[in-house]
Design a protein that fits this description.
Elements (H helix, E strand, L loop, with lengths): L1 H19 L7 H9 L6 H19 L1 H25 L1
Length: about 90
């Protein structure tokens, strides 16, 4: 019974995590990638700083963004559901 209540929360949190980790500004994934980069002024970062809004819109409008989010979400949600079942 508890898993039926908990499953939608785990799923939605996995989807939100997957979307937020995409390396496109202003999402947190971009800040993480830029922080770990040895060359924070490289061409990728200059391009993303300039055209990030267009890239984000294209990712949202096309299936590319939803495919990336669903793939990352599935990688995260399976271990999280297993952990929730183990705890409960």
């Amino acid at each position: 019974v508890a898993m039926k209540i908990l499953a939608p929360f785990v799923t939605w949190n996995s989807v939100l995590f997957a979307f937020n980790i995409l390396p496109v500004p202003p999402l947190d994934g971009y800040k993480v990638i830029r922080g770990w980069s040895r060359r924070p002024n490289s061409g990728y970062f200059r391009f993303m700083d300039k055209y990030s809004n267009i890239v984000l819109i294209v990712l949202i409008v096309t299936n590319i963004g939803s495919m990336l989010v669903s793939f990352i979400s599935s990688l995260i949600s399976i271990p999280m559901m297993t952990l929730a079942q183990f705890i409960l």
